[in-house]
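Supplementary Note 2. Why include the ligand at all?

Several targets in our set were suspected to adopt different conformations when bound, so apo predictions alone were not considered sufficient. For every target with a known small-molecule partner we therefore ran a joint prediction. The input for FE2/S2 (inorganic) cluster is given below.
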Amino acid sequence: MTRPAPLLSDLRETPVVGRWYMVPVLRDYPYYSQVGEWPVLGPKHTDADFFSFEPEHYHVDYRFVTSRQARFMRSMCPIGYRDWVTKDNGIVTVSGAPLSDRGTPIPKGRPVLARRRCRIASYRSVLGVVAIERHERFQAAYGSPAEPIRLSDGRLLCPHRKVDLPSFEADGGGIVVCPLHGLHVKCGVSA
Ligand code: FES
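The joint prediction is reproduced in token form.
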């Protein structure tokens, strides 16, 4: 019998690689040209303010893509950035390209939950590395580091688009680099 999988939204630490979780997914939607069931992170939103990107979109949760999806994402990494910012080129793709297809409206309603296996425990956006000046303005608007939104149930949300951050790895200074747009958020105590 299949063991019940914990809800990703209940986690207060990084998920365990190889374990199954219930994660939000967008079904039958294209990422680049690849139609599939894409795990998503954070709410649907627009980014006209700091990133000049007006269409509604989600972001792919790279921890829970399938091996096949990860291979596809690595192959979509722009050539000049391959192996430069990170050894995992899929992280460059997921940092720079939201889940948004010009010809396919984002479905109404919330993503559905699906059982997905954790492929990597955590990752951080590398957007700030490839667009330094823009990222500095963005970070300055929220404070450096930014303070999270603290909920009574212990969750800490990124103050930008309210992504749940405790399931991402903090550095030795207690900073989580938000996987969506790279904001540095103070989520823990310094080691
Ligand atoms: S949601 Fe945009 S930086 Fe966190």
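The pocket of FE2/S2 (inorganic) cluster is lined by residues 42, 158, 160-161, 163, 178, 180-181, 183 (CB under 6 Å). Residues 13-186 form one domain. Comparable summaries for the other entries are listed in the accompanying table.
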